[in-house]
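re: ur msg from earlier - yeah i can do the NDP complex, just paste it... oh wait u already did. ok heres what im feeding in:
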Amino acid sequence: MRFNNQVALVTGGSRGIGRDIALALAREGADVAVLATTEAGAEATAQDIRALGRRALALACRVQIADEVSAAFARTAAELGPVQLLVNNAGVSQPVSLFDMSEENWDLHMDVNAKSVFLCTQAAARQMREAGGGAVVNIGSIVGQNAIPQTLGYCASKAAVDHMTRVLAIELARYKIRVNCVAPGYIRTDLIEQLAAAGKFALNLLERRTPQRRLGTGADVAAAVIYVASEEAGFMTGQTLTIDGGWTAYGYL
Ligand code: NDP
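and the outut:
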């Protein structure tokens, strides 16, 4: 049990990667606040956490809105205790060509994917500083460092997350707060299924382009999050760990 009786907060915990991360933290002994856009969505994961014997709190919180973030962290502290582990996972991806891209599309990606990391990490760090330390894990993406076309807002937001990880890490190190980023490649979730259904790419081509010849799972990402959040990674901060089946290492035909 790496996180026995510690309090974790996972954004975007209703489904996909965030749900697997929340459950993995609970299996390691953490009590978990699960955030999503609706309480009902978060509650489904919270129930599965309670079935594992841990405490769980389901909260509706749009992570790009400061007042909602403040309220969610206040309720978590009041009902579970101060947050010691934060996973900034909530994210959106709505690819569109540059010529069709709107100001709203840019703002959506930067707000939900990047501004949320500022707001949630600030709220968490205030509680962690009081509690004597903690760990923050940002879910970035391989597109934070590798470009794909028609994805300017998403790529820019994930590049921001990648670099925010370093800035936050060096600022918070003195408070015993570590900040790292896990950058997934292509992981089979609603997000990828919906993009494939919209014709943005074909899942079999993604598999063929991946040296391991498969898409990742939420469990693949959760395992990396558990490691970087744990004391086993106690001297690791400001780093990005890529989990992509070899996608970014591949440079051949
Ligand atoms: P999903 O679309 O399956 O799930 C997204 C999650 O984010 C849901 O829980 C959703 O909540 C939540 N969410 C979306 N918008 C908001 C918001 N404004 N406020 C609060 N919560 C919100 O995505 P994935 O699980 O695939 O992705 C999770 C993270 O991993 C994202 O940051 C994504 O960019 C990243 N990632 C994913 C990859 C992949 O291949 N799947 C690859 C690389 C990175 P709700 O259910 O309420 O809508």
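cool cool. The pocket of NDP is lined by residues 11-12, 14-18, 36-38, 41, 62-64, 89-93, 112, 139, 141, 184, 186-187, 189-192 (CB under 6 Å). ping me if u need the other ligands too
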